[in-house]
Amino acid sequence: EKGGYEHFMLKEMYEQPKAIADTLSPRIQDGKIEIEELGMTDEDIRAIKKINIVACGSAYHAGLTGKYVMEGMARIPVEVDMASEFRYRDPIIEEGTLVVIISQSGETADSLAALREAKQKGAKVLGIVNVVGSSIAREADSVMYTWAGPEIAVATTKAYSCQLIALYLLAVKFARAKGKITDTQMAELIEDLKKIPDQVEMLLGNQEKIQKFANRYLAAKDVFFIGRGIDYAISMEGSLKLKEVSYIHSEAYAAGELKHGTISLVEEGTLVAAVLTQEDLYKKMISNMVEVRSRGAFVLAVTQEGNDEVTKASDYVIYIPNTNKYFTNSLAIIPLQLFGYYIAVGRGCDVDKPRNLAKSVTVE
Ligand code: M6R
To answer: What is the number of the ligand 1 atom nearest to the C-alpha of 241?
Structure first.
């Protein structure tokens, strides 16, 4: 059933190009984005004043990326909450608020409770869900399915990747409906979206290189992930992947926050993974990398092809192919997933079923 792969996690990582294509292609028709299941006209979209994204774990991280993309492209204010916080904080839901609940399983107790709380306060709720017919899918006003197929490994990979795609589709659609992008810009964005499956495939081909690199860090005590903007969101997901399967302590920091405390933890040999895919932030990131390196950190950089400056501030570089600045998370996550996976394999961990974790958290 693992189709020749050693673990479900590995199999599911390799299923990502197909999962992404399956989530994307039915929603691109005649050069336009069609999300029928949304049940919203362009006029309805223009009436959205605020979006609240609510989720747990990796789905929450997808939501954080969604915030940068939606606000950047469609200029709609977005708040992102962990479901366990949202449901108890008496959130302000006014006329024109769209609540988006993201969940692979559709059964996460806190996310389901947050959905009910939002509905009770009068919000329209959209679910981005992977499991067809699950509780969240049934109770939401509308459901946009991620077509990742069954995900078995506790650590999510392909469902997370499809959540990002669903959020990009919504952002482009909303941006167009609100007149924030032109038809030509939309066509370019769609072209970039269509390239993602092949680009992910190509990045998965780096497997051996990443395994070799991971084997050097099997005894790491702490790993820090740093990034700015959208790359901070992906740092959080990269850090979660590593810690949940390998049991190595890791944290993600907004790179600009390092100086406000965390940098005191960096010692000779500490591994710092720096994600820098946003051209306008390269310089700022490079100076943060120089700072940690001068304190002895070993810096692994994940950046876009063409960023040659990066080599002067890092010890090891993984390049991702060029794409629109809003879509880089879909590519940057691939080496980070592989890194977490191979560290866990090298340490002999139970990769598909990490200790203390369950695939679907149905208790609070
Ligand atoms: O089924 P859900 O998407 O609602 O699950 C949310 C989290 O429990 C889940 O993403 C968890 O953080 C994963 N183990 C991360 O790999």
So the answer is: 16
